[in-house]
Every structure is written in C-alpha cells, then in structure tokens.
Amino acid sequence: MRYAILLLGAPYSHQASHSALRFAHALLARGHSLDAVFFYHDGVQNAARLAAPPQDERHVVDEWIALHAEHGTSLEVCIAAALRRGLLDEREAARHGKSGHSIDAPFELTGLGQLIDLGQRCDRLITFAP
Amino acid sequence: MLLHVLNRSPATSRVYQQALTMMGEEDRLLLVEDGVQGALPQMVRHFGEVQGRLFALEEDLASRGLLGRCDASVQVVDVDGFVLLTEQAERTMSWY
Questions:
Q1: N or C: which end of chain B has fewer CB within 10 A?
Q2: How many A/B residue pairs have CB atoms within 8 Å?
C-alpha cells in the first residue's frame, strides 16, 4: 500500500516526531511504500537545517533526511506554516531579504494543495499530532 | 471500519469522549503515547462501550513502565500491529 504521514508536532517538544518515525520504519519493513511526509503546524520544525542536538541524542532532522535517502520519501513542508516560524529555504530567504536560510533539500516548501493530493493519491494517510 | 488513534489520557483530556461519540459499531480504537494510560484497569471503564475493539501500543506502554499492567480486555499491539491495524481499516482518524 501507499502511505503518507501528516506530522503536526515539533521535535523535542512532543512525542509526535518519534511516533511518526517509528511508524514510518515499521510500515516500510512491512513492504509498504511511504510516498511523503507532510510537515504542518509546529511540525515544520522537523525541517530545521540548523538543528544541532547533543551528539548522544537522536537527531530527528537527520533521521528524516535518511528516510528520504533510503526510501525516496518526499519531505514536504507547508510554506505558510514554515515562513511564519522562520523556516525559509534559500529562495524564500532572498525574497524576504533574510541573510540566511533555515531549510534545505531534501525538504521542500510546498502548499496545502500537496496535502490534499496526498490524501487522494495514497491508500492511507496517518496523522501524528502533539 | 475506521481506526481511531488517541494520544491523550482520559485523566488529562476529554477528547476521548469525542472519539467515542464518532466511533461506528465496527470501528477500533488504538491508544498511543499518553493515551495508553487509558488501558490501565482503573481507567479502562471510560472505554467500556468499545470493549473488544480497544488496543494499546506496546512500545508506549513500555516507555512509561506500564507493560503488563493493562486491563485484560485491552489488546496490546506493537508498532508492527499498529501498521496492520491501519491496513485493515479504510481510514485512520487521530484524536489529540
């Protein structure tokens, strides 16, 4: 089956990111595919390029990137939720006159239309919230 | 049949009441994160109307030191079982 995940919780604040990652690996191990993870509300914090947790702790941002690298899962970030939380890619940073950017590939800034599309395209859409 | 996923304890949130109100006769309820507290014998009465269709996530029970403390009416599943429940359900609804 084709799965998608909607993640609404920020890492290091709530369990949602951990629950979503655990579920993602379990569904892949069962032979399903994970088309995309859509990061919305405070969930956009999962895409923070500059996250630097202590080395003996899980690096949630890098775990999403690894999921993309190993399984081709696209990492889609709601642009409206991201911009108001200071999460901008290079293009948006330039457009808003900011000196640095805080989101990088493989995370992609995208719109809510993508979430609707995922809901229609995938067999299952599972929400992990704070 | 829908799968409802609840991550709040009945001790701290009433959202479980909304979940129960929305549940169809065949629907299942999975308790995750702090929601697993609802599987304890002293709390399970809140879920009496879905007896036999109530599940709790093993990993979240274990991380809270609650493994082996669930009421006998609750079916404990691991994350693999969570995926299986989503396979069997037409759709999944999360309550939080």
A1: N
A2: 44
Q: What is the pLDDT tens value at each position of chain B, 96 positions in all?
A: 999 999 999 999 999 999 999 999 999 999 999 999 999 999 999 999 999 999 999 999 999 999 999 999 999 999 999 999 999 999 999 999
A18, A27, A42: which to substitute to probe chain B, counting the most B Cβ within 10 Å? A27
Structural domain boundaries of chain A?
2-128
Q: Give CA separation, B10 vs A16, A30, A86, B17, B64, in Å.
A: 18, 32, 35, 9, 16
CA distance B92 to chain A (A): 6
Domain coverage including residue B65:
2-95
Nearest to A30 among B7, B83, B91 (CB): B83
Chain length of chain B: 96
| CATH number where B38 lies | 3.40.1260.10
What percent of chain B is helix, strand and coil (3-state, nearest 5)? 40, 20, 40
Is the complex ipTM higher than 0.95?
yes
